[in-house]
Write a structure and sequence with these properties.
single chain, five-stranded antiparallel sheet, 13 helices
């Protein structure tokens, strides 16, 4: 961290009354954000360092407050310097789903709790669930994300820039299949709803026992997206039987939902997300010097290939079969 940034943080903490306090760095993520835990006399708070222009804390603040108003457990924003990208937020603890599960936690109970958060959110009227003015998960945004595959992964494995016509036919194939996604009921989509971003808060009741992190990129979009994000985690799998049971639980909560239509949207969004993630993980290695993410690529490829088996994705599957042979996967 450069000296000017260090000075900004020191000044912010001093003005907040947390200057000169013990600061413990927390695990980094795939963004430009950093987190530190500040502790004093039994109190604990989290510093979020989100340097502009790479990060914008305004979205985080707005969605955190919105989720709390909906009765969900997002961290409270205690103090904010939006211009310099510095926040002090509530410390929800260390018990991420990943850590609890690694310690022998009840996988079924934890995932059921996380799914119930989505059920509660998706049962809310759209005007309640989605704050005014939030961006839509439209074709432009969905396509921009999938193009991370052709713009980062393909050049990395072929050694050449993806030809324009190959990129164009890729875009056209995706545009051919996205219709069922927009036909789904719409809701607030958190976009990175998986166990690294969920916390177990056993002292809270009901769905509040599931803490939610990393939601600043939320949009208005299809109900299936966060269900896919939870059940088809790029980093860690869950038992197929549990995933099936959780989908049945979701369907039981929405008796009027057409299951075939939902499953088509689920497969399309799964493929879209997995293609995007393959591109992002490659970019993290090549641009940001974070090669650890590459270890997850075999799993994400398996998930992508499974999604592409759905008939609704035939044009995209054909493109992959033509342009990305098994030797490049």
């Amino acid at each position: 961290m450069n000296p000017s940034r260090t000075l900004l943080i020191d000044t912010f903490l001093k003005k907040s009354g947390w200057g000169g306090i013990r600061r413990l760095p927390l695990a980094t993520d795939a963004s430009f954000r950093r987190y530190e835990r500040l502790q004093r006399s039994g109190e604990s708070i989290i510093l979020m360092d989100a340097p502009p222009p790479n990060e914008d804390t305004r979205a985080y603040i707005a969605i955190a407050r919105h989720l709390r108003q909906l009765g969900l457990s997002a961290p409270e924003v205690i103090l904010a310097d939006e211009k310099d990208g510095l926040l002090l937020i509530e410390d929800l603890g260390n018990d991420t789903y990943s850590r609890v599960l690694a310690g022998g936690g009840d996988e079924r109970a934890l995932y059921t709790l996380a799914l119930d958060v989505l059920i509660e959110l998706h049962k809310m009227p759209l005007r309640t669930a989605v704050p005014p003015g939030l961006s839509r998960y439209d074709n432009t945004r969905l396509l921009q994300e999938t193009l991370l595959f052709t713009d980062w992964y393909l050049p990395a494995v072929t050694g050449n820039k993806t030809p324009d016509d190959t990129r164009q036919t890729y875009s056209e194939a995706w545009l051919d299949v996205l219709g069922p996604v927009h036909a789904q009921p719409q809701t607030l989509v958190l976009r990175d709803y998986h166990r690294d971003n969920l916390l177990y808060l056993p002292d809270r009741d009901g769905v509040k026992a599931c803490g939610i992190l990393d939601f600043q990129d939320a949009v208005s979009g299809p109900i299936a997206y966060d269900v896919v994000s939870l059940l088809e985690d790029a980093r860690r799998g869950i038992d197929d039987g549990l995933a099936t049971d959780l989908l049945e639980r979701y369907f039981a909560a929405f008796a009027e939902l057409d299951r075939d239509d939902f499953r088509a949207a689920y497969a399309i969004l799964g493929a879209q997300r997995h293609a995007k993630v393959i591109g992002i993980f490659t970019r993290l290695d090549q641009r940001d010097g974070k090669p650890a993410y590459l270890e997850h690529l075999p799993r994400v490829w398996t998930l992508l290939e499974k999604s592409l088996e759905h008939p609704a994705l035939a044009p995209v599957a054909d493109w992959f079969n033509l342009h990305v042979p098994p030797s490049l996967r």
